[in-house]
Amino acid sequence: MAAHPRIPGSAASEHETSVTDGELPLLMVRAVKAMVADVAARKDDGEAAASGLNAMHGIAARYLEGHDDVTAVELAAHLRVTKQSASEIVALLEREGYVQRRPHPDDGRARVVELTDAGRAGLVRSRTLWGDLVADWEALVGPDDLATIRRALEAYLAAAPPT
Prior knowledge:
disordered N terminus, mainly alpha, single chain
């Protein structure tokens, strides 16, 4: 991403379109795909390709790190995916050694998903790679615009109904 020119703050690009024309969501998807590809290209150990882990798995791991006694149902709500999809994500992370399941302390029917030491180490590597990408974004658009982008995305997610 560092190869891109700085976006001027005052002049509109000839490629800009109205935010009401339906292109914005597609542009956002393209940007996310480009960011994921950028981070994957920065990896020097081939870990993601060998393990089959993707960005959604990283989002799940970050949520697990910050919350106690998380069930697959709660993870599904956070990820905005079906319970079945969340269970598949947990199963893959468990096979790869990044999470483990244990009985829920208050609900005998439920199981808690928690990170293993390998999962925590993976998050350290992930934060470094994504942090480098964010630094590139900040150099590209500036800290004020980056903060605006973050607030806009957080507002959308807060207002969007769960899937």
